[in-house]
Amino acid sequence: MATEGSAVHAIEVTVNGVPHSVAVPARRLLVHFIRETLGLRGTHIGCDTGNCGACSVICDGQLIKSCMMLAVQADGCEVETIESLGDGPDGLDPIQEAFKEHHGLQCGYCTPGIVLNAKTLLAENPHPSEAEIRRALKGNICRCTGYVNIVASIEAAAAGAGSVTP
Amino acid sequence: MLLAATEYVRPASLEEALAALAGTAGARVLAGGQTLINVLKHRAAAVELLVDISRLEELRFIEVASDGSARIGAATTYLELERSAPLRAVAPTIGEVAAGTVDRQVRARGTIGGNACFADPASNYPPLLFALEASMEIAGPAGTRSVPAGEFFLGLYRTAVGAGELLRSITLPPLDGAGVGYRSLQLAADSWSIARAVAWVRCAAGEPRTIEAARVVLGCVAGAPVRASATEALLSGGAASEEAVSAAASLASEGLEPPSDVHASGSYRREMAAVMAKRALLDAIGGAA
User: Fold this and answer.
1) Is B41 on the interface with A (CB under 8 A)?
2) How close is the nearest chain A Cα to the Cα of B108, in Å?
């Protein structure tokens, strides 16, 4: 790995339930590990500076920005990406169904991070108020500015309304 | 973005962390990484070795003693501070500040020790720790030494933590009925703070209320937090009234020359620091026993 310019570190990380034993250079960001090493492209890179939240994933139960953590730091951790969702009738998670029903996305670039944000929020607080939803979304920027529908989607997911398509 | 090449070690103990810091010139402590990772992306600092202390249990704890004092491990995250009921009972402002910091992703990783050691003039904890008269425990090859928060923050990005050392814990003395106010001026909920003031007030028993002792510390107005000594002197022993607070707070930023930048001019910062001081003092008086 001479081209990387630094020694590699053996890590064991479970991603979406699949254990991986891999060697990573110290400087590799977790988001690059997820996208390039594992080929899971559902985790997006928006700003690369920790501001936009498009790269949000769940690490040991907490939402984090995967561009603000080194892959080597995920050693021993359980990481969940957007690809882990989807056991519903359309292969969608109830949260994703709710986003589909309520048009909770426009271009969709920020959506994986926002859906994982919603998943983390609803796991902690199954019936959040609109203010709590908006507060939770602070670290996820939607530049289509479709927040009204995003909030409506999360409210619907909380109410269990997103899982049934009439 | 590709980071500059660096080395990485995750020590299993504080002792190993100190050995790693001592063994490599250009070694740097990596805590939550919510600032340092961006520094590495921008190649703003050359780091030979990252010493990852984020999972060191020795640095991740919140201990609340029966006298109302609290000791917080430097690698304790904002989320842990926000959710600690025992800490909230004795030092509520610490958790409130944590809960208002950036966003949930940053709060899950960022640490109080990292915030203190980064020592940005707009960092949220430095003026608060100063006003609470926290003591900063710094571990090094020769053992652990204790530095008052007022002597810990030396200037822009500079603290009392020397080469080969790391911040181990922060001890907060008991409030014993004192009230604390924390006010920041921000243009939007997640903007950098333009001016900040923290007040700590102890009131004397009896009516009308009088101020026994007051501390006021300003943030964002200089490289390091600044104690508003003239304001404190005017308040001590005086009435705990809005008039007295207004008069004293108007002196809070007198003589300071805060920096001008895209967020605010220096003179606006100076004026707003006094306003924040007044509001923080009124909050502190309201919260004092």
Assistant:
1) yes
2) 6
The 10s digit of each residue's pLDDT in B188-211 is 877 889 999 999 999 998 889 999
Nearest chain B Cα distance for residue A159, angstroms: 23
Q: Between chains, do B108 and A49 touch, taking CB under 8 Å as contact?
A: no
In this prediction the pTM is 0.94
ipTM: 0.93
> Are B38 and A50 an interchain contact pair (Cβ–Cβ within 8 Å)?
yes
Which domains are delineated in chain B? 7-52 (3.30.43.10), 57-172 (3.30.465.10), 179-287 (3.30.390.50)
End-to-end CA distance of chain B: 52
Q: Is the dihedral of CA A43, A45, A47, A49 positive or negative?
A: positive
Q: Does B239 touch chain A (CB under 8 A)?
A: no
Nearest residue on chain A to B79, alpha-carbon basis: A62
Query: Among candidates B184, B168, B157, which has minimal Cα distance to B36?
Result: B157
- Domain residues for the domain of A7 are 2-84
pLDDT one-digit tens code per residue, B152-178? 999 999 999 999 999 999 999 999 999
CA torsion B8-B12-B15-B18 (nearest 10°) is 10
Boundary-marking domain end, from A50, A84, A118:
A84
Residue A114: closest C-alpha in chain B? B105
- Of B5, B103, B105, nearest to A27 by CB-CB distance is B5
Dist CA A57 CA B121 (whole Å): 31
